[in-house]
Amino acid sequence: MEEGEYRAAAEALRPMLVETARSYLRDTAAAEDMAQETLMRMWQMHDALHSPVEALARTIVRNLALDYLRRRKPLTDIGETDIAAEETDTDHERYRRIMSIIATLPALQQTVLRLRLTEGREYAEIAELTGIKQTALRKIVSRARFRILTIYNEMNI
Length: 157
Description:
mainly alpha, single chain, 0% strand
């Protein structure tokens, strides 16, 4: 890909890259950084690129965003979260509701969710403890989170 052709492609791709990164990071400044890093990496290989490059760009920005999130280690002990720490009526009530929703989940979902979120255990460790494959554990956690969110939103209507 020629330099001029790359510049035109980069200019057209930049908004999509920022939006893709923002969907993962929920942070505009970090999303801009990820988009810039993606374009820099693509520039380093621009001689070997051929149009269309959108799929490659989207893959690079997604991987950069996921790497960024992994480095941040967003899991914290539930006792350290604002929901548990603050004693305002609203936060205390929200925490109580979420815990009561978790208590209504099927036993397997409760166990896996508590191991993952409350104790901060890795999927590999949970898989070893439960004998369930990591991919299945990720799906269980995902379904549990979705169920909690659905019930919580229904309660607030």
